[in-house]
TrEMBL record:
Keywords: CBS domain. This is Transcriptional regulator. SUPFAM superfamilies: CBS-domain pair (SSF54631), HprK N-terminal domain-like (SSF75138), Thioesterase/thiol ester dehydrase-isomerase (SSF54637). Residues 195-255, 256-314 form the CBS domain. Transmembrane segments: none annotated. It comes from the Bacteria. PANTHER family: CBS DOMAIN-CONTAINING PROTEIN, CBS DOMAIN-CONTAINING PROTEIN CBSX3, MITOCHONDRIAL. Pfam families: CBS, DRTGG.
Length: 437
């Protein structure tokens, strides 16, 4: 039998693309409480077929496929340029192909415009109309708007028309930067990618008795469950050690662990893994900003995701890539000696090697060195510089690392950094290993 939650999800999925969705109207149509409707709409948003757009509201969109994550949707463009949607709302979920700057005559511009492109221009109605007829969205710069006939055409074709107060150059720069950032984020996995959804999550209410926990434990073989109140907000965690010595008639509220550690869908899997390892937690509730329960993640799923991430190629160059490319083993130095040259990207505003880059460099050396002895991920617990001198741009730096201690769970390293055979920094690093399944 379908639950009310499933019925609401089916109702939302059956809506036309671009339809506006409100909690109050959904609750009224289906005869459910507004709290139940709100949770289902949030679940639909998490699944990717509902989106909330500023100044537009919550709308039904086409479900975003995972393979398009490195591209931008028109909805994303609205946020990037602080824009306002003035037509074609139903097409916001479509993916941007290319963007074209309308800085030439229309006839010369025609060969550059194609389907799902974004035409960026000022108040040029002929360009707006032609772009829409060719299947492209329109971004109007300078705070201008469009005529009512262009708005009507955009609504008919389902192609967004967006207005922004920024100039054309600023808009192009912002979109270029966003595309590059998306390339970097492509392989960064978030909790939303691996969570067990709400519809499959087992939970108990704080007013339930411990007998409910025992029943769920028997049915699922799991020992930890999130505890929610009547509003479906997470208020605690209940595990076997909480109920083992208590009678079945006692309430979950009396025995649970209150204010549990939680994560949000936007938390990275790496951050969730570190949290779970440090705290010795097997599972974490996933909540939204209002603390409503959205699902669960388990330690085994998190660590499997980390293993998968390491096998994926990185599309955009990050600071970590810059460090990895510049760091080399020193051929003539003693064991565990590395070298790198200070590039302009590594410096602060004074032209010296920045503290942050030096820290990242030593962490990278530690990972490389410790992984030669023990495969797996590690979490840096502490890094302390107890001697530091400025290092100038284009100087060559030698890094000598000495493993002071290494156990099954921890590693401790001592670093000395040299420029022209002169000591310029000393540091001590401690790290904890993450066990792999």
């Amino acid at each position: 039998m379908e639950t009310k939650h499933d019925q609401i999800l089916k109702y939302i999925q059956d809506l036309e693309i671009g339809s506006k969705i409100s909690v109050r109207n959904t609750a009224k149509v289906l005869g459910v409480s507004e709290g139940t409707a709100y949770r289902a709409i949030k679940d639909a948003e998490n699944q990717g077929f509902v989106s909330t757009v500023e100044r537009v509201g919550t709308i039904r969109i086409e479900k975003k496929e995972r393979e398009n994550i490195e591209k931008l949707s028109f909805e994303s463009v609205v946020k990037i340029v602080d824009g306002q949607v003035i037509g074609g709302t139903s097409g916001l979920s479509r993916t941007l192909n290319h963007f074209v700057i309308g800085a030439m005559e229309l006839d010369a511009m025609k060969r550059y415009i194609g389907a799902d492109d974004l035409m960026i221009c000022g108040n040029r109605e002929s360009v707006h109309r032609y772009a829409l007829e060719e299947g492209a969205a329109v971004l109007v710069t300078g705070g201008f708007t469009v005529s009512s006939s262009v708005k009507q055409l955009a609504d008919t074709l389902g192609l967004p028309v967006i207005s922004t107060s920024y100039d054309t150059f600023t808009v192009a720069t912002k979109i270029n930067r966003a595309i590059y950032d998306q390339m970097i984020k492509k392989e960064i996995v978030h909790v939303s990618d691996i969570l067990i959804p709400f519809s499959e999550t087992q939970f108990v209410y704080d007013e339930d008795s411990t007998a409910v926990w025992r029943k769920l434990n028997h049915e699922t073989k799991h020992s930890r469950f999130p505890v929610v109140n009547k509003e479906m907000k997470v208020v605690g965690i209940v595990a076997m050690h909480d109920v083992i010595n208590h009678l079945d008639r006692e309430s979950i509220h009396e025995v649970m662990t209150p204010d549990p550690m939680v994560v949000t869908p936007s938390t990275t899997v790496a951050a969730a893994a570190h949290r779970m390892i440090w705290e010795g937690i097997e599972c974490l509730p996933v909540v939204d900003k209002s603390h409503y329960l959205l699902g669960m993640i388990t330690r085994s799923d998190v660590l499997r995701a980390l293993q998968m991430i390491q096998q994926q190629p990185q599309m955009g160059e990050t600071i970590e890539d810059l460090i990895a490319a510049s760091l080399e083993e020193h051929p003539d130095g003693p064991g565990n000696t590395y070298q790198f040259s200070v590039t302009p990207q590594m410096t602060d505003y004074l032209g010296s090697l920045s503290y942050g880059m030096m820290t990242s460099m030593l962490v990278h050396v530690a990972r490389r060195l410790l992984n030669q002895r023990r495969k797996g991920d590690l979490v840096v617990e502490n890094l302390s510089f107890y001697f530091f001198k400025p290092v100038q741009i284009e100087q060559n730096v030698l890094v000598r690392a000495d493993i002071l201690e290494m156990t099954r769970r921890n590693g401790k390293l001592d670093f000395e950094l040299f420029v022209d055979e002169q000591l310029c920094a000393k540091a001590l690093l401690t790290a904890q290993f993450i066990d792999r399944f």
